[in-house]
Design the sequence.
């Protein structure tokens, strides 16, 4: 049994890497890289297969991610399929604490969307100016409303790269279709460090197990891929408008 939800929402793939003991990073800077080069290339392919990349505002502040597709062949493949060279960037904030100089805004010629409570919309829009489109959604942003707004803007698939709060909300709400989880071969051992998820009423329990699609070593890390909804057919990437997968091309790269 898998979790079902409205098919009017974008296909949601959660992508994360964690230590053996379930942590995303150390408690203090600098940022800890859990993946290896081969797995980072897989993530680049995953980004290229989606319409948008989403992270929480805390991840924007802490990690300052660029959220780009780096491989030129993948960029060209997106352009050839009329999808734009880069996926859109999406973030969500409850506080409005976002730096206009962050790489999220400063790097990459693509649409950037910021979701926030309606009360923060005007001041945040003034601060960011033309760097991003600011969308106010109610007193607090609900993930279902955020995804519905993305779908109304034409986004059919989104890969979510953290952080833990965003993953927790999407998982607890049953809004994720697929989970790509990489386990790095070491421990962090610090309870103050950020974890993959916080406490939550998750649909998957000992009596309702998520369906394992793949377990694959990638160098010294392991990729675990789980189906989380009835929309996940195990192919590894969402389908485009014409029913094909963005990775079904002559490059032979597949769904890695």
Sequence:
């Amino acid at each position: 049994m898998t979790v079902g939800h409205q098919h009017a929402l974008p296909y949601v793939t959660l992508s994360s890497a964690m230590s053996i003991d379930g942590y995303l990073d150390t408690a203090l800077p600098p940022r800890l890289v859990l993946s290896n080069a081969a797995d980072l290339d897989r993530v680049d392919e995953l980004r290229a297969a989606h319409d948008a990349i989403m992270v929480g505002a805390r991840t924007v502040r802490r990690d300052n991610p660029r959220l780009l597709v780096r491989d030129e062949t993948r960029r060209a493949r997106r352009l050839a399929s009329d999808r734009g060279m880069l996926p859109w960037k999406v973030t969500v904030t409850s506080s409005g604490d976002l730096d206009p100089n962050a790489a999220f805004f400063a790097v990459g010629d693509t649409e950037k969307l910021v979701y926030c409570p309606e009360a923060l919309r005007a001041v945040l829009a003034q601060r960011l100016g033309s760097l991003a489109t600011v969308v106010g959604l109610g007193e607090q942003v609900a993930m279902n409303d955020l995804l519905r707004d993305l779908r109304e803007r034409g986004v059919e698939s989104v890969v979510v790269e953290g952080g833990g709060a965003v993953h927790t909300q999407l998982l607890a709400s049953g809004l994720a279709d697929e989970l790509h989880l990489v386990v790095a071969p070491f421990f962090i051992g610090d309870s103050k460090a950020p974890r993959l998820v916080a406490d939550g009423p998750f649909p998957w329990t000992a009596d309702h197990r998520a369906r394992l699609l793949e377990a694959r070593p990638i160098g010294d890390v392991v990729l675990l891929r789980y189906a989380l909804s009835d929309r996940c057919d195990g192919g590894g990437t969402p389908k485009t408008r014409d029913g094909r997968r963005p990775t079904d091309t002559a490059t032979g790269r597949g769904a890695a």
In short: The radius of gyration is 17 Å. DSSP finds seven helices and nine strands in the chain.
